[in-house]
Amino acid sequence: xxxxxxxxxxSLAAALLTTTTFCPAQQSYASGDVKAIDxxxxxxxxxxxxxxxxxxxxxxxxxxxxxxxTGRAVVICPGGSYAGLAIDNEGTGWVPFFNNRGxxxxxxxxxxxxxxxxxxxxxxxxxxxxxxxxxxxxxVNPRDVGIMGSSAGGHLASVVATQAPADARPDFQxxxxxxxxxxxxxxxxxSHDNFFGKxxxxxxxxxxxxxxxxxxSRNTPRACILLANDDTVVPALHGLNYFKALQAQxxxxxxxxxxxxxxxxxxxxxxxxxFEMELDLQAWLxxx
Length: 288
Prior knowledge:
By secondary structure, the protein is α/β, with parallel strands linked by helices. It contains 9 helices and 10 strands.
């Protein structure tokens, strides 16, 4: 079942509604009361080489206490316009939320595209594969591995959710204020230019290939989309169009729209609806 949740007093404008593999070396370490594992994702030569020599993708793995582990895991892709990574706010800041609910949180420090779009995509797909490979050791159900992303990280997560091969396709997706369209005039231009390359002339058909609302199928996993109605960086229309595409394919989807908060609120407790958002997200996670 698809659901749109209007939080507090919210009115979406009518115009908005109608617009259209091997085992890498790993190092364990302690992080407060949370057991964490640091992983070199590829452990050698990655499937797709980075533009920048020596660039490495890493997983920061946080496992919940065995006594409350549910077997669920989520790979987290921070945003940053494909120019950097908001590791704290949109990555490790979410660890307590998931671990306290028995969910393994795996923060992906993916390599930046620098105009070679296949680089972060290959990292995100490999992260899903790697978590499934380590399922027994990490007490994870390989059929309950989701992906989460914020902003450009939400674009990356949605690309993997809609286009990855079956072995790298996540079982669910959580998207915070995601970049969905890559077509100029609708996209977040910084994310677009860093993804495709600032000096490249990109054909519209290539942009459309990475518009996730155009790539939804009945094989796309269920989704929860969270955003603020006053986001002027990545307008709410991105998430709304993705929600509508999921609905059209009868994919279970929930859209959570908060009245204000702008772009990039992430795990910040200063976000006015932070605790309400946590309850909303918890309810969604408990619904399947």
